[in-house]
Design a protein that fits this description.
heterodimer; A: 147 residues; alpha+beta; 5-stranded mixed β-barrel; 6 strands; 16% helix; 29% strand; B: 287 residues; 9-stranded mixed beta barrel; two-stranded antiparallel sheet; 7 helices
Chain lengths: 147, 287
C-alpha cells in the first residue's frame, strides 16, 4: 500500500480560533474535529476565496480515492510567501485539518507536512501558525518585569 | 493625485511635530519673540491641519501578525464588543497567567458571541438558528456588502482627498466611496449592498455614516446578519504617531438588534503591503 489513509480525531484543538479568513468553516466542515490524512497531490489550485489541493488517497481496501483540501486564499498565501506551484503533482503530503460535515472526501487543512518533512500552514485564516506565534508572544509578554 | 495629497499631509504632520520639538530657547528677547511666533504658527497650523492623514495601506493581525507594532492585546483582538475588550484586559493580567493562549481565545470568543447575541431581536435569533453557512452568497463569489467589507480582515488602501475617501479592498470585499463634500444621503434610493456613505471629521476622527444597506451577511464568523435599510457609523481615530487606526463600528438595525451593536478593531499602517488580486472560484462543498 503506497498511501496510508489515517484518520485521527484530535478533539477541539484550535477550535476556539475567533477569526476565519473569508468564510465560516462551518459551511462545509466540522469545526471541532481534526483528521489527518496522507495522499499524493494531483493538482494545486491557487485561487480565491480558498486555495485547493486535489490529491489521491489509497484507502484501507487498496482503492484510490480522490480528495480535495481547502486552505487560505491565494492572495494571503502569496503574502505569506507561497507560490502558485507550492505543491506539484506527485508530491506526497500529510494533511491535518477539519473533516467534511457531509462525509465527502474534503478536508480544510490547518497544517500540511511536505515531502521533505517540512510542516507548512496556510489554512483558512492561517490560524494554526497564528496561534503558534501568539503563544510565543504571550510567553514573552508574561516574562516582562513589572507589567 | 489623492495619494500625493495625503502623503503631503502625512509629511506635514511630521513637520509639525518637528516644529514643536525645535522651539528656540530663551537666549534673547528676539529669540523669544521668534519662538513665540513659531509656536503660534505651529498651533494655528495644527488647528488648520486637524484632518487625519489616513491614506495608505492598513492591515489587521490576520495578514500581518508578525508586525512589531502589535501589542499582545492586539494579537488577541477581533471584531469585539467594548465589554469583550474589558475582559481581554483582565485576562492579560498576571493573576491569569495560568491561562493558555487557546483558553484566552476561547473565553473571548464565548464572551463576544454572548454579548452580541444578547442584543438579538427574536427575528435575529430565529434567523440565525435557521441559517446555514453553506448559504453564504460569497461562497458563490458574490462580493461582500458594506458591513462585511468594513469588518473584514484583509488589508485596505485608503485614498483620501477633500471631496471623497475611497477605500480599496481585495478578494471578496467591495471598494467603497465615502463622500466628504458635505452632501447628504439621497432620498428615495433603494437599498443596495454598499448603501450610501458620507463622512466628516470630528477633530482627528473620521466619522462615516452609511445608510440604505440591503439585507446581507454582516459578519459570517460572528454570524451577524443585517436586514434591509440597516445603517452604520464608523469612527476611525488615528494614533498620535499615525501608525495605528482604531475603528469603532456601530450597527443600527432595529429588525435584528434591540439596540445598536458596537464592535471595535485596530489596524496598523503597513506601507510595504500591496493589495493583491486573484480570480474567485466558487466553493460548492463538493468537487
Amino acid at each position: 500500500m503506497l498511501d496510508k489513509h489515517v484518520t485521527v480525531v484530535l478533539g477541539a484543538l484550535l477550535a476556539s480560533m475567533p477569526v476565519a479568513a473569508h468564510h465560516n468553516p462551518a459551511a462545509h466542515y466540522i469545526v471541532d474535529e481534526r483528521v489527518e490524512i496522507e495522499g499524493v497531490v494531483t493538482e494545486f489550485r491557487g485561487v480565491n476565496p480558498h486555495s485547493r489541493i486535489y490529491f489521491d488517497v489509497t484507502n484501507d481496501q487498496g482503492e484510490t480515492e480522490s480528495w480535495m483540501a481547502e486552505g487560505d486564499s491565494i492572495i494571503n498565501l502569496r503574502r505569506a510567501g507561497w507560490t502558485d506551484d507550492e505543491f506539484k503533482p506527485g508530491d506526497r503530503i500529510r494533511i491535518l485539518g477539519r473533516p467534511s460535515r457531509t462525509g465527502q472526501n474534503l478536508i480544510e487543512w490547518t497544517f500540511i507536512t511536505q515531502p521533505d518533512g517540512t510542516e507548512v500552514g496556510g489554512g483558512n485564516g492561517q490560524l494554526g501558525e497564528r496561534l503558534r506565534y501568539i503563544k510565543t508572544r504571550l510567553a514573552e509578554y508574561r516574562q516582562q518585569p513589572g507589567r | 493625485m489623492a495619494l500625493i495629497w495625503a502623503e503631503s499631509r502625512r509629511r506635514s504632520l511630521v513637520a509639525r511635530q518637528s516644529i514643536g520639538m525645535r522651539r528656540p530657547g530663551a537666549h534673547a528677547i528676539l529669540g523669544m519673540v521668534i519662538g513665540v511666533c513659531l509656536l503660534m504658527t505651529a498651533r494655528v497650523s495644527v488647528a488648520q491641519e486637524a484632518v487625519p492623514s489616513l491614506a495608505g495601506i492598513w492591515s489587521t493581525t490576520v495578514t500581518a501578525i508578525e508586525h512589531p507594532d502589535w501589542t499582545i492585546a492586539d494579537l488577541f483582538a477581533c471584531n469585539c464588543t467594548p465589554e469583550t475588550y474589558e475582559l481581554l484586559e483582565e485576562l492579560l493580567r498576571p493573576e491569569n497567567d495560568h491561562l493558555s493562549a487557546e483558553e484566552i481565545q476561547q473565553a473571548l470568543r464565548d464572551h463576544n458571541q454572548t454579548a452580541i447575541r444578547n442584543l438579538f431581536t427574536d427575528v435575529a435569533r430565529e434567523y440565525v438558528s435557521a441559517y446555514d453557512h453553506a448559504d453564504d452568497p460569497s461562497i458563490q463569489c458574490e462580493y461582500f456588502g458594506a458591513f462585511r467589507t468594513i469588518l473584514h480582515n484583509d488589508p485596505v488602501r485608503v485614498e483620501q482627498n477633500e471631496e471623497r475617501i475611497v477605500i480599496r479592498t481585495e478578494d471578496m470585499a467591495s471598494d467603497r466611496i465615502i463622500y466628504m463634500d458635505g452632501r447628504g444621503h439621497p432620498d428615495d434610493e433603494p437599498s443596495s449592498p454598499l448603501g450610501h456613505s458620507i463622512g466628516w471629521y470630528e477633530g482627528s476622527t473620521l466619522v462615516v455614516e452609511t445608510v440604505n444597506v440591503a439585507a446581507n451577511v454582516a459578519e459570517d464568523g460572528l454570524n451577524i446578519h443585517n436586514a434591509d435599510d440597516a445603517s452604520s457609523i464608523e469612527r476611525y481615530t488615528l494614533s498620535e504617531d499615525g501608525r495605528r487606526l482604531h475603528m469603532q463600528f456601530i450597527l443600527t438595525d432595529p429588525v435584528m438588534f434591540r439596540e445598536p451593536l458596537v464592535l471595535e478593531r485596530t489596524r496598523i499602517f503597513t506601507p510595504d503591503v500591496d493589495l493583491l488580486d486573484a480570480p474567485c472560484e466558487s466553493i460548492s462543498g463538493q468537487f
